[in-house]
Design brief:
By secondary structure, the protein is α+β, with helices and mostly antiparallel strands. It is built from three helices and 14 strands. A hairpin with a 5-residue loop joins strand 10 and strand 11. 12% of the residues are buried. The longest helix has 15 residues. The chain is globular.
Length: 197
């Protein structure tokens, strides 16, 4: 089954872990050269950030591509509040979730559905002012089908919140991963600090 294939590739990866600022940070180096970095809440073990980096054909490290979590807040010259702001996927214990801010239309204007052929969730408005597709990489990695009955959405405070319930196979795989991560020796952020004399 594909779920065990993904878990086996995680087990085969070289892992390092660090505990810092209430987050457990885990770095994976896969045999094919890909890198994945994850950050978990130390107390709840909830996934906060997942990002990937791939080497180019010439061996140069590429930029980190965010899969789960919010991008770092931009510095000076940030976008104005009137622009639509799409978040990356957020991973809760039971759902995959996306938030799209600054969408002022009422809930009945939105159509949120699963597009099985493209393996994604499609969001559109009846007034044709907004259109977006979201994929769920975890389902792709585990080769699980998308199910329309697991999809829901809500609208409040100019924010569209899209939720997709995690299938039981994903929940089992995540609990197995947490067991595996407990075996990884974790360094603490204070371990490498130089002590003044």
């Amino acid at each position: 089954m594909a779920v065990t294939g993904w878990l086996e590739s995680l087990r085969a990866a070289e892992k390092t872990a660090l505990l810092q600022d209430g987050r457990r940070k885990v770095h994976y180096l896969f045999p094919d050269g890909k890198e994945m970095a994850e950050e978990y809440d130390e107390k709840t073990s909830e996934l906060l950030v997942r990002k990937w980096r791939v080497r180019s054909a010439l061996g140069v490290l590429g930029q980190w591509q965010l899969e789960v979590g919010e991008p770092a807040p931009p510095g000076a010259g940030s976008l104005g509040p009137e622009l639509i702001k799409e978040s990356s996927a957020n991973d809760t214990k039971m759902t995959f979730q996306w938030r799209i801010r600054n969408l002022p239309y009422p809930k009945d204007v939105y159509s949120v559905c699963v597009t099985p052929k493209e393996r994604c969730i499609t969001v559109r408005t009846t007034n044709k002012k907004y259109y977006k597709k979201f994929s769920i990489p975890d389902l792709d990695r585990h080769q699980l089908p998308l199910d329309d009955s697991l999809l829901s959405f809500a609208h409040a405070n100019c924010t569209l919140i899209i939720s997709y319930q995690k299938p039981k196979e994903i929940l089992v795989a995540e609990s197995e991963l947490q067991k595996e991560l407990k075996k990884v020796k974790t360094a603490h952020s204070s371990d490498g600090d130089c002590k003044t004399q």
